[in-house]
Specification:
Elements (H helix, E strand, L loop, with lengths): L3 E7 L27 H17 L3 E7 L9 H10 L4 E4 L7 H10 L1 E7 L4 H7 L4 H14 L3 E8 L7 H11 L3 E6 L13 H20 L5 E2 L5 H8 L24 E4 L4 E3 L8 E4 L5 H4 L29 H8 L29
Parallel strand pairs: 1-2, 1-8, 2-3, 3-4, 4-5, 5-6, 6-7
Antiparallel strand pairs: 8-9, 9-10
Length: 358
Amino acid sequence: MNPYFAFQWHITDECDQRCKHCYIYSSGQCHKITSMTWHEMEETFYNCLDFCEVYHRTPYIYLTGGDPILHTDFWRLLELFHEHHVPFTIMGNPFHLNDQVCRELKWYGCEKYQLSIDGLRETHDWFRKPGSFDCTLEKIDVINQAGIRSVIMTTVSKTNMAEIPGIIDEVVKAGANIFAFSRYVPSGGDLDASMTALEYRAVLEHCDRKFREYEAEGCNTYFSRKDHLWTLFDYETGKFRIPESAREGIIYGGCNCGNCHMTILPTGDVYACRRVAESRVGSVYEDRLADVWVTSMEEYREYERFSKCSRCKLLAWCRGCPAVARGTNGSFYEEDPQCWASVQNGLLTEEKAEERMI
């Protein structure tokens, strides 16, 4: 099978919630709800298939919004996915799920359904809306019973970082198949994004301990180490070693931006990363995605420009989160504020990044 290429496809801004950390609403710049028309969705779909044919990749679609299920042509779009045997995951809300809906999603080929838990009950409902916490946990079993893998994602900030271990307990108890978390990217909201590097390392250390305890008990939940700073943590603790066969100049993992991922918004705008506000690289209505990939996307593959990562032994496997770096320090290639790698722990060279730029 050809390697997958991921399209994070937002078909509508319409949503039942107004989350405090949402990129659509938190900046206060969303003045109207935008949704793609059926013709625009067809055009977008075939543009994605063309891209994958050109580059010999297998398309994988992360269908989202807003809440994609609220789009009037949602089920019609799933018919198109099914017709072309395109696998997909839905990232949405729990409010419109029931046994029948989930069975239909499974029939059309939905592999995973991702929901969010962003704190224990009081905190989560403050982030999203009253009743959301309990509704989300209840729908995990509904998703599982349909044969779809249930995914719980948490967005971590200083506001909720102390509650992450408790969230893990709730997610395991509810029977979620997969749990993962990523960090909040400052986007104009009222959340505290000032976690220090050592505070975040402590979060990872506590989570690692809980993950290992649950795994030892035979827990069925898979704990995804989504944040790339897990690579740094695992390197320090001996779980990850740089392969002797690794070749200089090859990117083996880390941030997917510019490698195997792009985002498409309801406006048709194409972004290198949804979480980087200025990363627009084209329009799915005006541009061939296969061309965008080797023109506008090139600037997100200039790895020697990373001010800190370019001096790190883990450059090819980590690079932290450039979106968090941009949201905090103003540049995609600036230092990730939660990265604790240093010269002292042997990961960084003293050499300045500017001296390595061509």
